[in-house]
Design a protein that fits this description.
alpha+beta, 5-stranded antiparallel β-sheet, 10 helices, 5 strands, 67% helix, elongated
């Protein structure tokens, strides 16, 4: 019994070795152009090309999206190693959160009761909120976009690649069988004198053809399933864009709120500090230092301001406005200024005063209060 088992294993080993050898010979002869190759139909070739293209671009999209979410390649590699070891990724503090903590600590050190200290605390809190929004965006993108693409590459695409390799071996077996039958037919000995060799070659060809056809059908069904993968990836792409939209909208909202708060600080500190600290006037008033203050404005402005019987009103600034030259006044959203009309001034403009600062401002940036 043991001898029969050993003999069977030996025959199987010889058969497998012979099959591998025949495939190698067929492959080599095809490369040298001395053997014919069974060609797949055009539709099948198109399916194969689409699958290869899908694999290549999915890998590139996955890699570049990961680079956007985590620009540091060393951290990406560390996360990859942790994932392969089935360990939980380290919970890192992102850059916005680091900046937020520094700003808050600095503000507390200066004193949250001071204008500058309170402004630092507010800026730090805004950065922390942005950091939290970034964390949620990364998590959502990872779950709804990266993970499905990764699962496709590790699942469906690996199966397709495996079946393609099997199909190629079946194709080599088929062409090797065709070649052996062709040689059996072209031998100098008549078929009647060598029937065993001829019939064995025909039988091998029938088996090889059946196995090739079966494998081609399996592979074709898998390749046609790539269309469903494209539809799924499109839904994932929509989820990614929606997550981006939410993240950027949150960031804009947080910074807009912060800008309004800092504008009110600048207005409050600017009125009280201009007369006593001329070197810091640009910072305390919220006006860039590169914009000249109107204390040394052209003479005509002083003359107009001194003209009697001018009705002055309060106005609220709707939007930030940067002065184009020394005759204009820079505005900060939500601050209150004094405005009035002067003879000869364009109807789309008003004269404005903020403490000792004077200049013309566009009316579309103002809400005049009655």
């Amino acid at each position: 019994m043991d001898a029969n088992t050993g003999l069977f294993k030996m025959k199987k080993f010889v058969s497998d070795a012979s099959t591998v050898f025949n495939r190698a010979v067929q492959f080599t002869e095809e490369k040298l152009g001395s053997a014919e190759k069974t060609e797949l139909d055009a539709h099948f070739e198109n399916l194969l090309q689409r699958a290869d293209k899908t694999k290549a671009w999915t890998e590139k999209i996955l890699k570049q999206t990961e680079s956007v979410l985590q620009p540091n390649p060393n951290i990406r590699m560390e996360d990859f190693v942790y994932e392969k070891l089935d360990k939980k990724k380290r919970d890192r503090v992102n850059h916005h959160e680091v900046l937020g903590h520094v700003l808050v600590d600095g503000g507390n050190d200066f004193g949250p009761g001071t204008t500058y200290g309170n402004a630092l605390v507010k800026c730090g809190q805004a950065q922390l909120r942005i950091g939290n929004a970034e964390r949620e965006f990364i998590q959502t993108t990872s779950n709804n976009f990266l993970q499905p693409l990764h699962n496709f590459l590790e699942g469906d695409m690996k199966t397709i690649q495996k079946e393609k390799k099997i199909l190629e071996t079946k194709r080599l077996d088929l062409d090797a069988s065709k070649n052996r039958l062709r040689k059996a037919k072209s031998t100098s000995q008549p078929q009647e004198e060598n029937p065993v060799r001829f019939h064995l070659a025909e039988a091998d060809l029938r088996v090889a053809q059946a196995e090739f056809d079966r494998q081609a059908e399996i592979t074709k069904l898998l390749l046609e399933g790539v269309s469903s993968a494209h539809a799924h990836h499109l839904r994932c792409l929509n989820d990614f864009i929606e997550a981006q939209l939410t993240y950027y909208a949150q960031c804009q909202n947080y910074i807009s709120e912060l800008q309004q708060q800092l504008g009110s600080y600048s207005h409050t500190s600017g009125v009280g500090n201009n007369s006593s600290n001329s070197s810091g006037a640009g910072i305390s008033s919220g006006i860039p230092s590169s914009v000249p203050l109107q204390a040394s404005a052209p003479p005509q402005i002083n003359v107009i301001a001194a003209t009697p019987n001018i009705e002055k009103k309060q106005a609220r600034v709707l939007y930030d406005y940067d002065a184009a030259d020394s005759s204009e006044l820079t505005l900060l959203a939500d601050e209150l200024i004094t405005v009035y009309k002067t003879p000869g001034l364009d109807p789309d403009w008003l004269m404005a005063e903020r403490g000792p600062q004077k200049g013309k401002v566009p009316t579309t940036y103002l809400e005049v209060l009655e």
